[in-house]
Amino acid sequence: MATAGRHPAAEGARLGRGAIPLVAVAHGSRDPRAAATVEALLERVRQARPWLPVRSAFLDHGPPTLAQALHGLREAVVLPLLLTEAYHSRVDLPAALAEARARDARLRVRYGTTLGPHPLLLDALERRMAEAGVAPGARDTAVVLVSAGSSDARANAVVADLARSWGERAGWWAVAPAYASAAGPTPAEAVAALRAAGAPRVAVAPYLLAPGFFADKVRQSSGADVVADVLGPAPELVEVLLERYELALAAETVMASA
């Protein structure tokens, strides 16, 4: 895994020669807790790399838009604050990026990959489980890994693969995927199935970046014994975000306006 901060461009920035700004784009939510969580995550990125200019943007439900966040920049690394590759990362964000670039012929953009999948996200999930009182790999505990869900079957398959990997690595009684929308099983269905299979205790691990509608829905209706917190500004996400930034810097492809 790349070590954050050691890319030549990043090192040069640390020495005062300027850094290409990082613009992190989240989905956005009507719930103000979501934007606050994004800002808390990015503040930890700023603390880890004080020389790196960091801006936030949202695809929906409030400013700044991506175009607003990119305004005045000549060059930027745009990173999606999304946990899986799905419609937002494949369609919405590139469309917003194309619109922003069309407005400014000088703008050069490197477009990075989503936060997930990444092994460190399992560490972050285990951190949240431990904070909820569930020791990582507790053999008397079955886990339901809950994502927001997507109409894109590929994104849901990534979550299923992550659940399988987590079960193989950690030693839980079982790990099952579930989806808060657009696909099945629902969290309540997955919890009920694990209980029917004999699980002594069932915990829910939200594979969600921030609090909001889906997180509240899962907490209120899953029927689990324990529901952990969302990933939020976990230090593992800071490390993943910085790694994605460096990988984008190292890529040769730069999106430039026509």
UniProtKB/TrEMBL annotation:
Looking up SUPFAM superfamilies in the UniProt record yields:
Chelatase
Ordered alphabetically, the record's keywords are: Lyase, Metal-binding
Entries under Pfam families matching the protein: CbiX
InterPro entries the UniProt entry points to: CbiX-like, Sirohydro_Cobaltochel/CbiX
**Protein name, please?**
Sirohydrochlorin chelatase
